[in-house]
Write a structure and sequence with these properties.
By secondary structure, this protein is mostly beta strands. It has a single domain, classed as SH3 type barrels, CATH 2.30.30.390. The protein has 2 helices and 7 strands.
């Protein structure tokens, strides 16, 4: 399988990843976590795990996801507030039908919630 490298600011190093890793979700999609009670809107995608080793090792071994799958950066919310989350593809499912996400940073990146997802703000797209 062909591989390529990309720089991860979170890990502070180059990350090696398969070229044909398929992301199930896209930027602007609303998703929810399958195990923990939170949901969010995707604002960035890593083709494989690209956070720090310390972060990865902090995940309990019995629920630690595989490294070689897409990981998503979310503007997340739960019953206690809003935050940024980093979640593996295996732990997410689509949740656009549940309505908009309540996060203070959404309006900086996205237009109004539309049809189960958030379109990127004009000027932020290529």
């Amino acid at each position: 399988m062909e591989r390529a490298s990309f720089f991860s600011p979170q890990a502070g190093r180059l990350i090696d990843a398969p070229l044909r890793m398929k992301a199930r979700f896209a930027i602007g999609d609303v998703v929810k976590h399958l195990v923990y009670d939170f949901r969010g809107v995707i604002f960035d995608i890593d083709p494989v795990f690209a956070n720090s080793e310390e972060w990865f090792e902090s995940i309990p071994h019995e629920v630690r996801p595989e490294r070689e799958q897409p990981y998503y950066h979310l503007l997340a919310e739960n019953g206690e507030g809003s935050y940024v989350a980093y979640v593996s593809q295996q732990n997410l499912q689509g949740d656009g039908e549940s309505g908009p996400v309540d996060h203070p940073s959404i309006e900086q990146l996205f237009e109004e919630f539309d049809g189960g997802r958030y379109p990127l703000r004009r000027g932020l797209t290529h």
